[in-house]
Amino acid sequence: MAAARGFITVATGRREYYVLAHNLLLSYRFHTKDPLPFAILCDRENALTRDFDDVVVIDSPKRSFTDKFRILDLSPYDESIFIDADSLAYSDLNGLWDVFKDAPPFGILGRACPPDSDRVWLDPGNAGIYKEKLEYLIICQGGIYYVRKDGLKDFRDTVDYILGHYAEFKFRLFPSVPSDETIFSLACSVHRYLPPCTWSHIFGYYPDIKRFYGLDIRSGVLEYIFNWQKEGKHYPENGSFLLHWGSVATRSKPYIQEAERLRSASEGKAVRPLRIAFACAGAWFRSAPAALIPNGIKSAIYKLLHKKQ
């Protein structure tokens, strides 16, 4: 019998996405005394998926943002909280259920703005069949979504329609490449699924952070200010459930250092600086242009560094 509640993430394509998903799982269990089931939607089973409670292999994966839409129909739980794989937990994520306790079938974190606001991602004139239905337009930050299977069909149909006609909406954010943020936010606007709160009260998004005043996953320290906040002030409303790094930043030294701290603490061992050094070197070689390092040499060196981790 399927669990009533659980967490879920998605990893398809390159192995590094599976590493990120496994780090997320480890961070959740590290900070949670009574962990709930945690599932992964993926395009294959491997050594990194074995620790998940449920593994769901996607048929015909797109290996893009659009694979996230499959959580709407493939989650093994009646209620799910989706967490992006490029995130790390800094406190007990079970507290997120209280955030979404009064949520509609699909919950999003953000804010609702008047359709004529200069902050929204869509010109209401480009809303097509939804033009007359929009009392407001929601903007959000992806990374956390709530999904309840009961009553989700109409919302799912709306998501499918927006995805199939994506270019016609001429979104100001991600205008040509479908994004889960733009599609989910418009679908929530159409169905009037208001966010329970803004995302910045729940988690930090690394590209929007100006400065860390404390960052240590072992003790759950996550203190920072956003780019739009003033130095020298205290902002207790800044979210500390998790840090959503963004895929590019997961190759940075801060993420690699936090991941090593997490693994070492979970194993009851001291942090290994050499492993951090090898991981940083591996990340650099993965992103180095072919003009600097020929692909054949890059592949060989990366494999060697990977074996050392």
Question: What this model shows, in words?
Answer:
- With 309 residues, the chain is an alpha/beta fold.
- Helices cover 31% and strands 21% of the residues.
- Strands 3-2-1-4-7-6 form a six-stranded mixed beta sheet. Strands 5-11-8 form a three-stranded mixed beta sheet.
- Strand 1, helix 1 and strand 2 form a beta-alpha-beta unit.
- The protein is globular.
- The mean pLDDT is 91.
Topology:
Elements lengths: L4 E7 L3 H17 L6 E5 L11 E4 L13 H4 L4 E5 L3 E3 L6 H4 L6 E8 L23 E12 L4 H12 L1 H4 L10 H12 L11 E3 L3 E8 L4 E6 L15 E3 L8 H15 L5 H15 L7 H14 L1
Parallel strand pairs: 1-2, 1-4, 2-3, 8-11
Antiparallel strand pairs: 4-7, 5-11, 6-7, 9-10
Helix pairs in contact: 1-7, 4-6, 7-8, 8-9
Give a quick rundown of the structure:
This protein is of the alpha/beta class and 309 residues long. The chain has helices at 15-31, 71-74, 96-99, 153-164, 166-169, 180-191, 253-267, 273-287, 295-308; strands at residues 5-11, 38-42, 54-57, 79-83, 87-89, 106-113, 137-148, 203-205, 209-216, 221-226, 242-244.
Strand count, sense and barrel status of the largest sheet are: 6 strands, mixed
Fraction of residues in β-strands: 15-25%
In whole angstroms, the N-to-C terminal distance is 38 Å
> Radius of gyration over alpha carbons?
20 Å
Average pLDDT number: 91
How many strand elements?
11
Give, in order, the helices and strands.
EHEEHEEHEEHHHEEEEHHH
What is the CATH first-level class name of the largest domain?
Alpha Beta
pLDDT < 50 stretches: none
- The total number of structural domains is 2
Helix fraction bin:
25-40%
Which CATH architecture of the largest domain would you pick?
Alpha-Beta Complex
Assign the structural class, choosing from mainly alpha, mainly beta, alpha/beta, alpha+beta, or little secondary structure.
alpha/beta
Number of helices: 9
